[in-house]
Every structure is written in structure tokens, then in C-alpha cells.
Specification:
Strand 3 and strand 4 form a beta hairpin. Helix content is 55%, strand content 13%. It is an alpha+beta fold. The strands form two sheets. It has a five-stranded mixed sheet, with helices on both faces. It is globular, with a radius of gyration of 19 Å. It contains twelve helices and seven strands. It has two domains: 136 residues, 2-Layer Sandwich (Beta Polymerase, domain 2), CATH 3.30.460; 110 residues.
């Protein structure tokens, strides 16, 4: 039923907006592997418009995002192809995660093969590291420094922290599934057990569920944020060439 509803909404977008959806995936907690009983569906997509839309004097002032109204079940939005490729050039972590998603709702196979070939060319561990570092610091400061915390907010800090550890160890593009990073990066022991129990609580509860702070996880977070803050400058940043992006753009417009 949910799948049919998502496909119906994607069809509606194509018809009403006069676009072609090249790729659509799940990007939220369901994709990360720790959805709650009442988690919504975070659908993200890449679309392309007819050629004449891009051959316009006012192109820069035209909206390059499509967003449906958010409700209790669905959070659906997408980026224009040109915007997506501009983000690829900057090694945008969100785009890289979309393209690594395991839950895919729609895809143009040729497009997905072409754009994935570009990922290794434009993937910048340094740019992604800074993104995750900023996210971890901000989310820790905003969500976890109180007497009671929402369980889901722990993942808003743990996931970017593990992403940085993944990049630090040069393991490639950060996987979208949280458990993959836990299994690879956290040794067997009390901390891994605490994180496992946190996942169980998240999946068996509801989005608004609160709990007492978890001392061992809090200590891990504080220590890793401090340690990883010194690491970003050591990571690789690729040179940027727009030609492959331009070729892909022209192939699908």
C-alpha cells in the first residue's frame, strides 16, 4: 500500500510539474536502519525538465527544487538534475547518500549507472568530513545536553561521528546503513552493546520517546568530537573538472 502511494505521488509530480524523475529513494531513518514505529517516509528524488526550460534567460531565478507538503506519513522532495550535478561537484554528502540508498522507489538505469561512475571522481573525503563534523557538533549541542533526551537525537550525533571515523580510515563512500558502520568501526564490548540497545529502543518505540542520557555513549561522543576535530585537514580533496558533469547533463536534457 505505501509503495503504491509513493509511486502515485511520484506520478503526480511528473504530471503536474512536467518533469521526468530519474531516480527516487528513501533517505531517512528507514534507509539508515533505525526507523521507529511511527517514522515517516523520507522520499528524495532527482528530476529533469524539458530542454527549453534550461535554455532560458531567467534560468538562475527559477526554482530548482520540488517539495510536497509534509504530513505525518510522507516527506517528499527532490532536486533538479542541474542542481544535483552542482552538488556532485561539491561532494554533497546528502546526494552521495541518496545514490548509495538500498531502498529505491524509481530509477532510470542508464542514468544511475552514469552518475554513480562520477561519484569516485568527485567524492571528497575532506568536504564530507567537514559536513559531518559540523552536524555532529551542532546536534550534540542542541539535542543531547539536557536531563532527558529524545532517543532519536542520539543517532543525529552518532551517525555523523561514525561517518567521520569511516572517512578517517579511508573506507570509501560513507554507507547509508548505520549498522554497517557500527559493525565495522565499534569493537565488541560495552559501548557496542549500548548502541545496539539504543537501536532496539528506537525501533520498538515512537519518534518522540525520551530517555535518560547514556553515560558511556555521551563520553564516546565528547571524546570523538574532540579527537576528530583535529583530523579534517589530513584528508584528500580531489581536483574538480566540470566536463564530465556537463556531458552527463546534456545526455539527459
Amino acid at each position: 500500500m505505501i509503495q503504491q502511494m509513493i509511486q502515485g505521488k511520484l506520478d503526480q509530480i511528473e504530471k503536474e510539474q512536467q518533469v521526468s524523475i530519474l531516480y527516487a529513494c528513501e533517505s531517512g531513518s528507514r534507509a539508515w536502519g533505525f526507523e521507529s514505529q511511527d517514522s515517516d517516509y523520507d522520499v528524495r528524488f532527482i528530476y529533469v525538465r524539458p530542454r527549453d526550460w534550461y535554455l532560458s534567460v531567467d534560468l538562475e531565478s527559477r526554482r530548482d527544487v520540488i517539495e510536497l507538503p509534509v504530513d505525518e506519513v510522507f516527506d517528499i522532495n527532490g532536486w533538479d538534475l542541474r542542481k544535483s550535478l552542482q552538488h556532485m561537484r561539491k561532494s554533497n554528502p546528502a546526494l552521495m547518500e541518496w545514490l548509495s540508498a538500498s531502498i529505491i522507489y524509481r530509477q532510470n538505469d542508464a542514468f544511475v549507472n552514469d552518475i554513480k561512475r562520477l561519484m569516485s571522481m568527485y567524492y571528497s573525503p575532506k568536504a564530507c568530513f567537514y559536513h559531518y563534523l559540523h552536524m555532529a557538533k551542532k546536534n550534540y549541542r542542541v539535542y543531547l545536553r539536557s536531563e532527558q533526551v529524545r532517543i532519536k537525537k542520539y543517532f543525529y550525533v552518532l551517525r555523523p561521528l561514525l561517518a567521520m571515523k569511516w572517512l578517517e580510515q579511508a573506507l570509501g563512500v560513507v554507507p547509508i546503513q548505520f549498522q554497517v558502520m557500527v559493525d565495522q568501526l565499534i569493537p565488541e564490548g560495552a559501548l557496542k552493546q549500548d548502541i545496539g540497545e539504543l537501536i532496539v529502543q528506537k525501533k520498538s518505540g515512537f519518534e518522540a520517546k525520551y530517555a535518560d542520557p547514556i553515560e558511556r555513549i555521551d563520553q564516546f561522543i565528547v571524546e570523538e568530537i574532540e579527537r576528530l576535530s583535529q583530523k579534517a585537514h589530513m584528508l584528500h580533496e580531489p581536483s574538480v573538472d566540470d566536463k564530465p558533469l556537463n556531458r552527463l547533463f546534456r545526455d539527459y536534457v
